[in-house]
Amino acid sequence: MSQLHLSSKIGTDDVEKEPTRKGFGRGLKAAGDENEQVVALCADLTDSTQMSLFKEAHPERFVEIGVAEQNLVTVASGMAAMGKIPFTSSYAAFSPGRNWEQIRTTICLNEQPVKIVGSHAGVSVGPDGATHQMLEDIALMRVLPHMVVVVPGDSVEAEKATRAIAMNGQPSYIRLAREASPIFTTEQTPFELGKAYVLRDGKDITLFGTGIMTYECLVAADVLASHGIDAEVVHVPTIKPLDEETILASVKKTGCAVSVEEAQVAGGFGGALAELFTRDHPVQLRRLGMQDRFGESGAPNELLEHFKLTGPHIAEEAKNVLGK
Amino acid sequence: MSGQLTIPQLEHKAIVVREDIIRMLEHAGSGHSAGPLGLADIFTALYFDIMKHDPKNPDWPDRDIMVLSNGHCVPVRYATMAEAGYFPVEELKTLRKLGSRLQGHPERTRLPGMENTSGPLGSGLSQASGMAYVMKFIDKQPHRWVYTVMGDGELNEGNIWEAAMFAGKNKLHNLIGIIDRNNIQIDGNTEDVMPLEDLRGKWESFGLHVQEIDGNNIESIIDACSMARAIVEKPSVIIAHTVPGKGVPFMEYDYHWHGMPPNSEQAKDALKKLRTLDGKIKGEHE
């Protein structure tokens, strides 16, 4: 859709790739340049969570916490009480994996605008294996009152999302991936917290994607088109609050849907959609993602293939839903 | 609020705070008795002498901050705040009732002057460290102090020791931790449940300045906080030995009163004991 200014290279071999965490790193530095209340705290992973750009630009506002994720978010809670906007980063398996109660009590119930940055989420982490492939973070963060949950689709959007949560005044979780993934948006593509975007119009079925899975939905739509199926693709970078209006309008038109995420579908993105449809507009929904199991070691692309989270597999599931 | 009352006046104020605690717990029908009674002298000293604060302007940007880590002891904070003028003493009767600003465990967003939300143990020292870090290194406010009151049982939590490493590393001299060393926790005596000693040695090895005092002696509390403020190269921790249930003889030293309120007969008896210092003087409001 032209007003979304999507990349012209979608679906080609020339599509550029970059990890979403890179975009976060640029966004955090920009947020720090724009607002001197922004501070950054890291649990011994400054380079790999891409906080190093901020650290170089604003060393006086960067705090090294060491390998102590409970302290990471509670020190941040105290800093937020002093008027700061703290970004805390680690791998998602450790934060929010290890420190959920501290996030619940000292950030969400305490209503402090701390930002939880969970990097290296999903099976696409690859060879590190199941311990490091965080799959339950969307569910853990989504159930917390006051928490905003964002899963950017590519590195360009991650930069915009980071700057947006710096200014939203709320506890917020941003989920990032380790591996380079295709860039399908551009600098001109709009991004607003709480908005879903119809990337491709269709009438037969809706493919809902979040995070790096949205690109795979775009690939799936091309495959489906070659079979005469007109799929709509809706990108949902904000899982909470959910853009109910855009999502419901799509399924009211298409009548059925597939959701795709690199996380547990139970309680995750698919869970959020199922709750919405059950309440307002029951439709058939096939939820793709991790089905109550852990990941394992392997190359990132190999794992996405193994767990059937690539365009051709998504297209196959869509055809099953349509009975074709 | 500093230095307006004499030591005998402060000691009397602590008795009034204890009476408030007994009345509010009896009225609530649930809650913790022993900890709040044991902490009454520390809270009275903090709110009526040590801390710089303004009950009529709870968000005063130059105020000292007190973080309550062991949220279950909040009745003592509510009672002291009410006596200091943050809200009417009458409101203490709403403790733990539906719609009250005085939740069973404290919630910052409900009550002006409540600096943090707590209940789950072990996170107060970290929050206080974050505040002290901002004051020391980012906003550069050398005239402000952060106090945090912790229980001894909650020192079982790993989060506390993560915070101790952080405070020690950054030499947060403007951070003063006060440990309510009453030797009880829910399952029994602290040294039976999970031994804490050598407690002084533990804190010293993390790089903190340690004092041990009688936590039921108001003058000692004031002096120890003055000393802590004078230590410029290290954060401080004050191990305040207190008597759980202090002031009410049938509650003193008995861990069964950790999580129990008095019934009306026990409350009547407790109030009488408080007013007469256990029969040593004639109660002045009798």
Strand residue content of chain B:
5-15%
Give the end-to-end Cα distance of chain B, rounded to a whole number of Å. 30 Å
Strand order of the largest sheet of chain A: 3-2-4-5-7-6-12
Figure out the total of helices of chain B. 10
Low-confidence stretches of chain B: none
The CATH architecture term of the largest domain in chain A is 3-Layer(aba) Sandwich
What is the count of DSSP helices of chain A, taking H or I runs of 4+ residues?
A: 11
- C-alpha termini separation of chain A: 27 Å
Form type of chain A: globular
CATH H-tier superfamily of the largest domain in chain A: Thiamin diphosphate (ThDP)-binding fold, Pyr/PP domains
**Annotated CATH architecture of chain B:** 3-Layer(aba) Sandwich
Largest sheet of chain B: 5 strands, parallel
What would the average pLDDT of chain A be, to the nearest integer?
Answer: 97
| Main β-sheet, spatial strand arrangement of chain B | 1-2-3-7-6
Helical proportion of chain B, percent range: 25-40%
CATH class of chain B: Alpha Beta
